[in-house]
Amino acid sequence: MSTAVETALEHSTLFRFATAGSVDDGKSTLVGRLLHDSKSVLADQLDAVARTSAERGFGGERGGLDLALLTDGLRAEREQGITIDVAYRYFATANRTFILADTPGHVQYTKNTVTGASTADAVVVLIDARKGVLEQTRRHLAVARLLRVAHIIVAVNKIDLVDYSEAVFRDVEFQLKQAARELKVDEPAIIPVSALEGDNVVDRSEKTPWYGGPSLLETLEQLPALADLETDLEAFRFPVQTVIRPQGAVAPDLDADAYRDYRGYAGQVAAGSIRVGEAVTVQPSGRTTTVTGIDFAGQELEEAFAPQSVVLRLADDIDIARGDLIAEAGAAGSNAQLPQPTQDLYAALCWLSPKPLKEGSRLLIKHGSKTVQGLVRQVISKLDLSTFADQPASGLELNDIGTVHIRLAAALPVDNYVNFRRTGAFLVIDPSDGNTLAAGLVESDHLELSAREDERYDI
Asked: Which pTM value belongs to this model?
């Protein structure tokens, strides 16, 4: 790994996490407790919450504060007592800076949960200790697996309402471990908490002597961020957003010939890093060239790395357009393999629209900065949330998670999402109204999925 990347990671303490859970599990209250007990709430905000809490006759041992008011900012959220939109909050401790996405629990807003979790280093799934693992819990665990979230933490909330019972906690813990095995994910960290009373949220509680682990905040401070886990592995990926060619008169202090000959390719580094002089390959053309310059905010850099937005200059005059991908060429390691342009997209979809998906549907696929037409050739399978097993299916409904085969009108240079979250993900868009229909993740084994499809239809 280069010196610039090492330096960036050495000083990086940013950690992103999202909350998820069923309605009334206490997500907003938990977020409010984190903000309150970590002293990340301004005095005027706290005064406003105290006044509103008093007007509503809110009780509790911790000063009568309805801490959910710190996150449920929309009027509809306050009136209905539920979270609708994703509420992003920023706070910091002595050890780390956090970006928190408080996502809705209602099944109708699962699409917002997907949005909040898509960029998260960890997902905190809340469970009501009195209810145990519900279908929505299993759906959120499945979404976390689908999005390859690095860390899953389960907060067994409202432990105070079961008299801090170890037996109740162990029963829920058993259900969670069984669900993790069925889903084939690592066992999550499981913490008994009371968001209302503050037990094991920021500080460890004396009311749960049978629990010897860290508090929720301590866990979040100790986990490695996704950038720390992936930077050593990822090869360079750079989706081109626009081609820069100078227009207009030449400034007096610029070299006229150099100005007129300038051609740069602007975009954001999606993965890895690149240095001047290194070889790159442009997809889908497959042409290889060398980076001759990196421009950033009027300065020339020797190196750029994710997630910087820069302009690359290349040695050869190659036909490159918006939506093309500039990738590392010739590097060792499995993750450095070049993405192969394909018109047959095998992917997992999280269907986010009330309009059902049917075989033969025509869609738009937005991958990076490029949008192409697609046809759903087959719906291969759908995830059964009760067993976490793939079942044959002919379509997908709202909040379903399934695997599909989409035939594209033009080849896209896609990566396996397991290795490259940015270039392995795409959006499915309704061509009739432009609404987002699904979040898509490129599956790893196209041959296996193709064989399953052929077997099903006796091709």
From this structure: 0.75
